[in-house]
Write a structure and sequence with these properties.
- By secondary structure, the chain is α+β, with helices and mostly antiparallel strands.
- The strands form three sheets. Strands 2-3-6-4 form a four-stranded antiparallel sheet. The protein has a two-stranded parallel sheet with strand order 1-5.
- Helix content is about 40%, strand content about 15%.
Length: about 250
């Protein structure tokens, strides 16, 4: 199986419960995560009565403008990312502050029928794609053969589950960076914004940039007040990129 596009699924979003003794005079449309951030910001000044009569999204735009990003750390979104390569996740997990990761394990999961992610730079060029696909097929055949041989070599290991793990962890070395993987990523809004500013930029590697733009669109739909200042545009290299209106809050 080949992946030409990544897939993003929202697994969890903030749920806000307003305390009865500190009610906020809410105005305008908002999601729970946006209200949570507004509540946290208003608590600092005990301005629950909303003296400036700002809608939630106006209030949060001012937060972004002023760079008071700490209140954004209260709202977390968890995403399931699929159809991405291990090369991509090697870069993604470098974003540590504010993030949590859980990724498919090649030690335990059988990759005999692994999927592969077609590098964006090759998509549309039949000759390049065919040459790349031959390499993927050869790598997968090598993996299957190595697992079989290693299972025989360690036949003396009575625990079959442990024996399979020993075989797979050794054989996975022949699998390429293009091997498809799945990962659950949880991040607070401030962390997501920092990652998106960096990975949606024109200097980002093509595959992670493509994913970042898709993640951005997903989060803009979830919480426009947090991510609505990002502008998606067509870059000079004829691929989508994005930039924030407010930098590194």
């Amino acid at each position: 199986m080949l992946y030409y596009e990544p897939r993003v699924t929202v697994l969890s979003r903030p749920q806000f419960t307003e305390p009865g003794h500190l009610p906020v005079q809410w105005m305008g449309e908002s999601c729970d995560g946006e209200r949570l951030a507004e509540f946290a910001g208003r608590l600092c000044y005990m301005s629950q009565r909303n003296p400036a009569r700002r809608a939630t999204r106006e209030y949060l735009e001012n937060i972004l403008k002023q760079g008071h990003g700490s209140v954004l750390e209260h709202a977390n979104f968890s995403l399931l990312l699929e159809g991405i390569s291990r090369s991509l996740t090697h870069e993604l997990v470098r974003h540590r502050a504010g993030f949590a990761y859980s990724q498919l394990s090649q030690r335990y999961v059988d990759e005999s029928e692994a999927a592969f992610v077609v590098p964006p730079a090759m998509i549309g060029d039949a000759a390049l794609e065919e040459s790349w696909k031959e390499q993927m097929d050869a790598a997968q055949r090598s993996y299957v053969a190595l697992v079989d041989s290693l299972m025989q070599r360690y036949a003396w290991v009575s625990d079959k589950v442990h024996r399979r793990k020993m075989a797979r962890e050794a054989a996975r070395g022949v699998l390429p960076n293009s091997t498809e993987t799945k990962i659950v990523v949880t991040g607070n809004v401030r962390a997501w914004r920092t990652m998106l500013e960096l990975r949606c930029g024109e200097g980002a590697e093509m595959e992670i940039r493509r994913l970042a733009v898709l993640v951005l669109r997903t989060l803009q739909h979830e919480a426009p007040a947090f991510f609505g200042d990002f502008e998606v545009y067509m870059a000079e290299d004829r691929r989508e990129s994005a930039r924030p209106g407010y930098h590194k809050v």
